[in-house]
Amino acid sequence: AYERRFPTCPLIPMFVASDTVNEYKSEDEAIHVIERRCKLDIDAPRLLKKIAGVDYVYFVQKNSLNRRERTLHIEAYNETFSNRVIINEHCCYTVHPDNEDWTCFEQSASLDIKSFFGFESTVEKIAMKQYTSNIKKGKEIIEYYLKQLEEEGITFVPRWTPPIACKLESSTTHTRRPVSPAINIPDSATKEGLNNKEILNTSSSPSEPTAGTPDDKLDADYIKRYLGDLTPMQESCLIQLRQWLQETHKGKIPKDEHILRFLRARDFNIDKAREILCQSLTWRKQHQVDYILDTWNPPQVLQDYYAGGWHHHDKDGRPLYVLRLGQMDTKGLVRALGEEALLRYVLSINEEGLRRCEENTKVFGRPISSWTCLVDLEGLNMRHLWRPGVKALLRIIEVVEANYPETLGRLLILRAPRVFPVLWTLVSPFIDDNTRKKFLIYAGNDYQGPGGLLDYIDKEIIPDFLGGECMCEVPEGGLVPKSLYRTAEELENEDIKLWTETIYQSASVFKGAPHEVLIQIVDASSVITWDFDVCKGDIVFNIFHSKRSPQPPKKDSLGAHSITSPGGNNIQLIDKVWQLGRDYSMVESPLICKEGESVQGSHVTRWPGFYILQWKFHSMPACATTNLPRVDDVLASLQVSSHKCKVMYYTEVIGSEDFRGSMTSLESSHSGFSQLSAATTSSSQSHSSSMISR
């Protein structure tokens, strides 16, 4: 029955095709090993596939049938991106030791993501989602083919027997194990069992929560006033989990409302709810989240440019949070504050939300355990899809989903532009299915019609920027001045780390003292990728190749430039005695980059050796017809104090087999997004290919 799923299986839509690579059969036909290369269409966001440059992924599957031992072992591993992601899966069909008429099935898998273009968490979630769905369908598929065989009249397959010669040799040493009497399997045992191990027998499934005894009851008035409608089973689960916390958990015990959120998030499965609740309590204690509202003051940049705030309540009494995401400069906030400060601010918003829920519960006299969020997307464009900004958003969603479950009662997304599906494709895999059901999305002015805002928010409190009469005190956002941007070192000095570190480095570039980065390439046709921002001044970007290694990096000795300041490092690698064309060669045309520009690109290497990325000070050219500088040149030069420039950069080397386009293909036309950009420049030479976008 298992072999019938090849070369393709209609019950597994993502299983497109398979080819036999190797096959082996023993002479006595007891052993049959077959190895296949399987083509899969993974259910991943289309944009992620575009970044990775693949439409399909390939796995190698090895099936080993041992008719003598009556076992079938299935091993699979990924061939695509094997240097970035390692997936191993093992399945086994065996005979039950107590009843030969029963079949046992075990399945296990491991996932190790080393790197994946900055989207490691997304890939992990997709892989876990695929694996979970495969587990659920595994038994359904095998039963489908068993039924198919029965319909064809095949209800029995003769057990393997050794050749006659073998029988004579082993007749004195082998005795057959007696067969246990047949046992009827109840319907409950044939339903879906454990995710990772399923035995078709009469053993009961994992115990489900049962209704408590009369002694386990909570006060009915207390439930109605603070918790809402609970079934006896749900009430019993709450009591059991609370008692367990009181007995085993050291530290602050959360309120019943908070425990109930975790139970609801796991459909009142006590074991699952206890696991995520304990993880969250440990996280809160580790990072002192309980005291964040009392001990942490948001930086002024957040107060001025973070376009979000609390605004009255909705018709159900839920606190209402308004976020004008389209007016917010996500890139500027990340550059000025770092991901840590943004995360702290979002955590403080959630803590404030919990406090407001408690207050509204008292005010309205009924349980209110969640809030409503209104997100205005007017102004959203490709700039908001800047890669590090999206990365920060995804990580924030992960933290919030893990520690504030069932706190979002409703999410109203208004004035969604055409670019919204791109953002949704990136974000949706991180959002729990139950949370996703609470989303209501309106394009254009649809929110003003039937089924719009008036169904959820009183007319008197609709914000003025949405055509209402209520003045909304939420900041309007706007572009964060580049003068507020800070380097990785400056952000690191604040010691506000919670869960991540920036991938960018900073460097200072002086007149006569460029900053250089050395990259050693062992395999030709590797891909060097880069992503940098010119924070101050104008620079020229170059790429050089040398067969011999430069001297160890040395810092510039020009004391007047204060190269050890937080502004960034300055390192020169190319020796003064080296000659261009003899000791090293230029592999890309020089690229002039203006202050404020973001540049992303890549270079496919032709030769192994040493590549040098160089950022050099760009001097203003004098007027062609006179030796006197132009007025514009003089004014421009005055803006660059002390002939100093500043860049923030990130580089990565990718194997050519894993690369399809720029590694930062998620950049806007103003900040990159090379493949989606309206203004993309590319350069190529006879011995190399590259892609550069601004």
State the end-to-end CA separation: 55 Å
CATH architecture assignment name of the largest domain: 3-Layer(aba) Sandwich
What is the overall number of helices? 16
Beta percentage is: 15-25%
Multimerization state? single chain
Low-confidence spans: 166-216, 495-502, 555-567, 622-641, 660-694
Give a count of the beta strands, DSSP E runs of length 2 or more. 26
**At the fourth CATH level, what is the homologous superfamily of the largest domain?**
CRAL-TRIO lipid binding domain
Number of domains: 4
Major sheet strand order: 1-2-3-4-5-6-7
Bulk shape: flat
* Rg estimate, integer Å: 32 Å
Largest sheet: 7 strands, antiparallel
Question: What's the CATH first level of the largest domain?
Answer: Alpha Beta
Structural class: alpha+beta
CATH topology of the largest domain: Phosphatidylinositol Transfer Protein Sec14p
Summed over residues and divided by their number, the pLDDT gives a mean of 76
Proportion of residues in helical segments: 25-40%
